[in-house]
Amino acid sequence: MTRLDEMRHHGRMRWLGDEQGWIARPQEVVEALAGDGFQEYKREEARSRRDREPHGGMWQGINTTTGAVASAIWVKSEGGREPIVFIDIDGEPLRGA
């Protein structure tokens, strides 16, 4: 079981079918991917001002053993919910049921 699977199993990552993304904490997703062997290659955050929380961001990592690339892109959702995170592994979107 991967760390992302563990997050799903414990309800810390929930699929949103209409948005085709996940409700999750971006840092927790990044930590799960890193724990599964993906080393950070690039990380960016979008802010309206330096003193504000980010409105979104992206993270890319590479697994140097397998050559696989993982990407996570997140955007702040409306209504105070956690951000929506879009996850791809080797160009394939990670989808829920």
Structural class, please? alpha+beta
User: What is the N-to-C succession of helices and strands?
Assistant: HEEHEEEEE
Number of strand elements: 7
Proportion of β residues? 35-45%
Backbone CA Rg: 13 Å
The coarse overall form would be globular
Helical amount = 10-25%
List low-confidence stretches. none
> If you average the pLDDT, what whole number results?
92
SS field, number of helical segments: 2
* N→C terminal distance: 17 Å
- How many distinct domains? 1
Main pleated-sheet profile: 7 strands, antiparallel
Verbal overview:
It is a single chain. The protein is α+β, with helices and mostly antiparallel strands and 97 residues long. It has one domain. The chain is built from two helices and seven strands. Strand 4 and strand 5 (69-75) form a beta hairpin. The longest helix has 10 residues, at 26-35. It is globular.
How would you briefly describe this protein structure?
The chain is α+β, with helices and mostly antiparallel strands.
